[in-house]
Design brief:
rod-shaped, mainly alpha, about 5% strand
């Protein structure tokens, strides 16, 4: 009788121990409430806003030569410009605005001279090439943004999985289920995962 009681107690302890070896995590809550994930999203939004700003500035300053446009684009996309670079970007914008004003005046002239016709043709070609280049750049930046979005999603997914694994090891859990697949569980590690994830850089 004593032996049977000992066995039952041992089995009960084993079952209790095994019950503690399982945990659940609410993945959706982790993604929605984690500052780590929010920071990743904010970085992408900032990059998208920056790209939009670059395209808008190029749209407003479109009458440039191919070399000038490339230089201007590089300056607009660069980080931490020095004073000389900022000044050069302003010069290019001013040059484009002056040409745009001149082009508008030339288009309104009823009988332009040969020199004016040549200038009109030159500026019109610059404008057309500028629009083509702007369209190509918009496609390029969109692709870059999509790649960054995919990379960010992958990084977030990996970070969440790694963090769940860390918390599980700390709590000596052998299995962690998604909260969506479990109706009830006492061993919910969602808050622990969010806290540890927020400590990541």
């Amino acid at each position: 009788m004593k032996t049977l009681l000992t066995i039952l107690l041992a089995v009960g302890c084993f079952i209790a121990a095994r019950a503690q070896a399982f945990g659940v995590v609410d993945y959706e809550r982790v993604v929605n409430e984690s500052t780590f994930v929010k920071n990743s999203l904010e970085q992408l939004q900032a990059l998208e806003a920056r790209y939009r700003g670059v395209l808008q500035t190029l749209q407003e300053n479109i009458i440039l030569t191919d070399e000038e446009r490339q230089e201007f684009t590089n300056l607009l996309l660069a980080d931490n410009l020095n004073d000389a670079q900022r000044q050069r970007a302003q010069q290019l914008a001013q040059t484009s605005r002056q040409r745009a004003e001149e082009l508008q005046q030339l288009r309104q002239k009823p009988q332009p001279s040969e020199t004016e016709k040549a200038a009109l043709e030159r500026f019109t070609q610059m404008e057309a090439r500028g629009r083509e280049a702007l369209q190509a750049l918009a496609q390029q930046l969109t692709q870059q943004l999509e790649q960054r979005l995919q990379q960010s999603r992958e990084q977030v997914r990996n970070a969440v999985r790694e963090t769940i694994a860390q918390v599980a090891k700390e709590k000596r859990l052998t299995l962690v289920f998604s909260a969506e697949a479990v109706l009830y569980a006492e061993n919910d590690i969602t808050n622990d995962v969010i806290q540890k994830l927020n400590q990541r850089k």
